[in-house]
Amino acid sequence: MPQPPTHSSSLDMAQPEPIDLSSGKYVKLWQGPQHPGITGNMSLELTLCGDEIVECKTHVGYLHRGFEKFMERRTYIQNFTVVCRIAVPEPTFNEYLYSAAIEELAGIEVPERANWLRALNLEMMRLASFLMWTGGMSGAFGLYTVPNWTLTYRDYILDLFEELTGARIYHMYIVPGGVRNVLPDGWKARALEILKGTEKMMREVDRVMMNNAVFKARSKGLGLIPPDMVDPYGIVGPNARAAGFKRDLRKDEPYLVYDQLDFEVVTATASDAYERAWVRQQEIFQCINLIRQMLERMPDSGPFQAQMPNVLHWKIPPGETYLKAECTRGEYGYYVVTDGSEYVRRVHVRGPSYTHAIAVMERLAVGTNIADIAGLMVSLHTYPPEIER
Amino acid sequence: MSLKDLISPFFVWQRAFEKPYTVGLKPIVERPGAPAYRGFHINMSDDCVGCGSCFTICQNHAIDMVKVDGLEAHGGDSGLRPRFDYGRCCWCGLCVDICTAGSLRMTNEYAWFTTNPDDFRFVAGMENKSWDGRTGGYHRHPDYHLFPPKRIEMEMLAPEESVASFTEVAKGYTEEQAKLEADRCVECGICVATCPAHMDVPDYIHSIRDGDYEKGLQLMYRTNPFPATCGRICTRRCESVCPVGIQGEPVAIRWLKRFIVDQVAEADYARILPNVEADTGKRIAIVGAGPGGLSAAYYLRLKGHAVEVFESQAQAGGMLRYGVPSYRLPDPALDKDIEHIRSLGVEIHFNHSIGRDTAFSDLLDNYDAVFVSTGLNVPSQMRIQGEDHPRVMDGLKLLDDVANGKDPQIGTSVAVIGGGNVAMDAARVSRRLGAEVTVLYRRRIEDMPADTEEIHEAQAEGCIFVTQAIPVEALNAAQSDQVTLKWGEAEMLQDPKGGRPRPVLQEERMHLDTFDTVVSAIGQGSNLDYIPTEISDQLQIKWGKFIPGDYQQMVLNKLFVGGDVANATADAISAIEDGHHAARGIHRFLDTGQRG
Amino acid sequence: MNSMLERLSKEFRVTDITERHPGLTTLTADKDVAETLLRELRDREGYTHLNFMTAIDYIERGVFTLVYMLHNYATKSTLSVHVNIDRVNAEMTSIHTLWAQAWTYQRELRELWGINFPGSPRVEEDFCLEGWEEIPPMRREFDTVEYCERTFTSREGRGTVNPREHMAEIIFPNRGGDK
Question: Which chains touch B (3 or more CB pairs under 8 A)?
């Protein structure tokens, strides 16, 4: 693992030459806000010289729904239906972190079985999210077959979610106090079957995408994150692991049942678009492995919800906490402050995209070819809704 | 760039001839939602009680509680039903999770086409929908709760301990227990309609959660000047309709009421509770210092009227004092309620019997209004031979003696005839006096009119229950201080019209058992002899009970009645409401001259 | 950890040191030393990672509490540094020279809370609200319901009945407690 760099070297904000648009030398181009290369809606204001980007400004707000504000106006139980909408492709991390933060502040101990079910949900979510990302990544580089494969398997996983939680996207399954349901009959067997298919499909993806001359040529060296940029920019997750940082919250600060599972943190050596993709591919296999371990070890009986107070007038004593979990993109966190009333005083949602899609993106884009900008964006794996909450 | 990297992408061709994942275009096969899918709502309207918890929990304001044709508010049902606005619903299913009645669930139907946007606003379960009758869909898992389904147990004296003395059996909630129990209330307010006095139950329970017991006391006195009493012995109809009890145990409303009173010292009452308004110069006579009479006295006095109460006994409280044993209602609790009423300037003439010491007609002549609440104090007859046997005693007398500190001399083996609260009281009092007790009842345990809790406690204290047993005759026993009871077994005969089953004596299965005392407790009637016939002839009286008009007023404008002698329910809380309502009627009558 | 906290309370007069759960400690620092403290934590104590920064509106106390969440990867400990600033003319030293993503947070805080960070790059630009003319919406006094009612129209035909009041009206119109 590289030594933590000194910050000063990486903090030079991109300060391009003053750009005179009337000189005829530059073109201003908007990418987005509706661009499939970006999961969600945000836009990039690009200034081009030829086909090279000389300046990139990000614009967000297209998905701003003011979640943090209106959570202050809803009761603790009501908020649980709101939080999942903060990261559309990965609602489960919001559900888990919100619930866990509330439980910590309210002093509620969640039963063991609920912890296993929660971790199972989180890993399935990770798998589904990575599959969608793989499709997006290959699509951004012109490989349109892979998205068809991966999204098919993502849908199979959503089928499993539907069966277990009653919904495909906004599961609202992890609830303060535990979970809402237990595994239906025969669910484990169906899950194992789908995992088997996913694993086989991912080997094929490995062949046609990771070992593809075009993909390699375009993604290698694209958007390289030097190690000394990682901490100053707050880069986390696979983006940091690809740069050699062996950091994974599931290992470093285990939550739920991760301390009982066997896995190794995946790292690479140079965080360019290709290696970031490679790390994610490995984590997909790791994820399948973790789900299998959990299905084998999780208890099949016992309570799955703590004794709850009446949620209709649930007051939580004053306090604050910050809880985090490793989502597909790295550290996802909930900062929750309570003041003793029936309403939360403040919730701040920390999503990795906040820095990946803005500060990091604006810096990495400079010097990139316009054709690769979508690929670069996807390779950072960003979800704009978690930026503007 | 290696050759492998150039070739391997062509691997995609291997899947070219595979069967596609997606379904064919035609015919389109509709894919059903998963068995637990959160689709469109369905509400079993017959089970729904319209408590509105779904409305309360909905974070999107997607639910309205609306009136529905053909459904009226009654008993434990508000008659309202949830109407969903699918323009706002987010299908979280919290409404299903919180549904107290368990009537609301979601089906696994998820496709609905209509050209009229207003169609998406509908009363689930009351309008025909294509998903009616679907069995699949989301419902609450039985082990998953959004409010605690079980009540906080009230700590009781152990039976072996309780049977040894007249100490109060229920120990009362601690503050922590009361707050936990108060937390279970969903604040729907369904109970308010069923409570005879229409107490502000959700509000005073709320005050417990806030720890503001003085406010709780104020709220209770709005409708009931006997909270310490009712907090112990109320028949608590409210709990029988509490929606929390449908899938769990009802909120312990009675114990919570008691808890509030126990938190406030009597010395603080004057500061906390409303004071008497300016003197009106009107005088009101009240006959009987039971809960009905004193409730009327309290509310009339608050309005500034001069109130005089005539009580034939030496102490106030009526049946509460002489009919309810002190292990259920200790004297200090009853005194706390009564003392506050007296402290407002209500005058009580003790040992003063209307008809004997003062003529009833004098009351009508000398006062601006008269409220009569003389209760039921004449035991009903068993109508069997030998009923006048010296070892046959009526239950009220037994309780009365004990309340007055007299030894009723019941011996060591007692049979109690009856299944009401008086029978249970008589049985448990006899146990405390050291007797072996057998309770004989003509129907089954589940038919007993007594409070279930009372029955259980009597059983726990060692009373033996013999059901479907009809007394036939009281005979002289071998010993002169005993009595032999002849009783027969009964079979329950179903009523072809669907009424409650009727016990039929089986002549061939007779028993003879000898007891020191047989206590008869099969009901009470009234004694209205104090009313001269020329007055009573003008009044509507049926089976010894007054039939009052609105505001408890009789045809004689000045005369208002209430309590057991004027209602069918014959319990303390109804008497209190009668008194309160009559007070309102009297005040209105004196103020405006209007009849009810 | 403890020796560090001791030193901080001595040198930087930090107060309210509270352990929230193992690995998370909150403390409060004065506005004028905050930037130096953060730099010190980053460079000398290994708190190299800025998890996030945000604000809490304590309108009842007339302050915004700025929260800087710092993490030390080596010791796996997180520090939540609170800085109270005046709600009127709210302003704070920019830390964009300490962390590269800080300017984005500061832009957000400027837009949604109305807290200014002089010198922070592009701090005046819109963040996620374009053309917003109301008071900064994350301030407690901004009433979302009132804003919605003023700005949008509701669909006709909605309306709810309170079960308790409905039952009172139907079942016991003249009874119960005096209104």
Answer: A, C
